[in-house]
Each structure stands twice: as structure tokens, then as C-alpha cells.
Design goal:
This protein is mainly beta. Helices cover about 0% and strands about 50% of the residues. The chain is built from no helices and 11 strands. It has strands at about 5, 10, 20-25, 35-40, 45-50, 55-60, 65-70, 75-80, 90-95, 100, 105-110. Strands 2, 4, 5, 6, 9, 10 and 11 form a 7-stranded mixed sheet that branches. Strands 1-3-8-7 form a 4-stranded antiparallel sheet, with no helix packed on it.
Length: about 110
């Protein structure tokens, strides 16, 4: 049984930073690409960033230069460092791999 558990969400002012974590159970973590998605209120879920098993990263244009995705294969944890947050980054952030999803963690950016 694979489980993905996100943490690290919260409320922050514009320009602030947060680091999200995704802890993965099971043996799939090391062998597969992992990704972050987000869903803002009233909008469809959208892709944010991906990191391959080898560490190659890719980002949505909206977060490029502000967000950094990383992974610790020894701990089965993926991270999303989010800097210079904007109100439009407000969303529930989800961890994803293969066909598994976490339950999400809420990020609110507001003054």
C-alpha cells in the first residue's frame, strides 16, 4: 500500500516562504518521478513541478525561479521550497507519483 502524506502548509504574507514535504511509504519512491500539483479555489488542479528519479527537475512557468523541488531518496521524502510567495499561489498542494495522490496541504498567501 502506497501512501503519500504532505505537510508544511500554512498561512504566509506575500513575499514569504514555506517548505512543503511529502513523505512516501512503499518502495516506489526511489524508482519513480515525483511531482507537486495544486488546486486553487474554484479552479482545476494544475501541475507545479516534477523531479525524476535521477534528480532532473521541471517547473511550471508560473513558479519558475521561485519554487525548488527536491528529494531525499534515503528518507523517501520530497520537498517543495516556495519563496517569494504571491496571493495567486494560494491553493491546496498535492504530492503525486504514478497514480497515487496525497490528501493535500493548504497554502494561503495573504496580507
Amino acid at each position: 500500500q502506497v501512501q503519500l502524506v504532505e505537510s508544511g502548509g500554512g498561512s504566509v504574507q506575500p513575499g514569504g516562504s514555506l517548505r512543503l514535504s511529502c513523505a512516501a511509504s512503499g518502495s516506489i519512491f526511489r524508482a519513480n518521478a515525483m511531482g507537486w500539483y495544486r488546486q486553487a479555489p474554484g479552479k482545476e488542479r494544475e501541475w507545479v513541478a516534477t523531479i525524476t528519479s535521477g534528480g532532473t527537475t521541471s517547473y511550471a512557468d508560473s513558479v519558475k525561479g521561485r519554487f525548488t523541488i527536491s528529494r531525499d531518496n534515503a528518507k523517501n521524502i520530497m520537498y517543495l521550497q516556495m519563496n517569494n510567495l504571491r496571493p495567486e499561489d494560494t491553493a491546496v498542494y498535492y504530492c503525486h507519483t504514478l497514480f497515487y495522490w496525497g490528501k493535500g496541504t493548504l497554502v494561503t498567501v495573504s496580507s
